[in-house]
């Protein structure tokens, strides 16, 4: 029997994620949304399905406005929510998106009580925390897509700077998903060589700064939206790692219970993803400067969490 994947939200991120997953033939996909136009998720699902003969996959993609068709999903990716607009902070999104996430979690836990949940909605760490609290599931089954995207952005900028293949680049970003993220320069390499040995301190600092502002840079360029290709692919890679039991180590927003000295918070840390979801939280040694950045990131996330109505 094929695995079943539900993507909640048929906007740009959700549709991009569904297309990425379909191309890899990871399981049947349900694309659910409650838009003003009822046919929208069905139209996008049909459009994705029709790429099958071209790309060579047999995935069945279903579009719907009803959670009934999502029943017994193995994984649910939540992309629904109001996107960040120019001039809007991630904290501004809390009040609006809390109601959306709460409603989705209520439906999903009813129709797919055994599902693993991946949250993409911003502000990411706060919404992942909300999902964890509302779902009442073990912490390995609820997570947020965070550092996997931020690390990809940093790796892209490193590859561009050094004119090397992205396949040679290993970048590591922890912390909150946003301007408060913690790019770990010491753990970022090209073919195993620390990037500090391959470029000047000024260029490293510029890449770190651009990584932190990666999402905002795209928002400012698009004017009327936010990034969706890379976020969709990042969430898709998490789904793939889980369904294929790959034991892939990525950074994700996980609920912490003492790790890194933190409790009762969802925070971007290295995790091992397998069939049970988050199978291990990996603790890396931080120096004084990295710990300072991490502490600042925690402070900013808790400030966002304080806007939640729990």
Secondary-structure blueprint of this entry?
Layout: E1 4-8, H1 12-23, E2 28-32, H2 40-49, H3 52-55, E3 61-64, E4 75-78, H4 94-111, E5 116-119, H5 124-135, E6 142-145, H6 147-162, E7 169-170, E8 173-175, E9 181-183, E10 189-190, E11 193-194, H7 201-212, H8 214-222, H9 229-243, E12 248-257, E13 263-274, E14 277-281, H10 288-305
Helix pairs in contact: 1-2, 1-9, 4-5, 6-7
Structure description:
This protein is of the alpha/beta class and 310 residues long. The protein has a domain at 4-145: Rossmann fold. Helix content is 41%, strand content 21%. The protein has helices spanning 12-23, 40-49, 52-55, 94-111, 124-135, 147-162, 201-212, 214-222, 229-243, 288-305; strands spanning 4-8, 28-32, 61-64, 75-78, 116-119, 142-145, 169-170, 173-175, 181-183, 189-190, 193-194, 248-257, 263-274, 277-281. Strands 3-2-1-4-5-6-12-13-14 form a nine-stranded mixed sheet, sandwiched between helices.
Key descriptive features of the protein:
single chain; 310 residues; alpha/beta; Rossmann fold; 9-stranded mixed β-sheet; 3-stranded antiparallel β-sheet; 10 helices; 41% helix; 21% strand
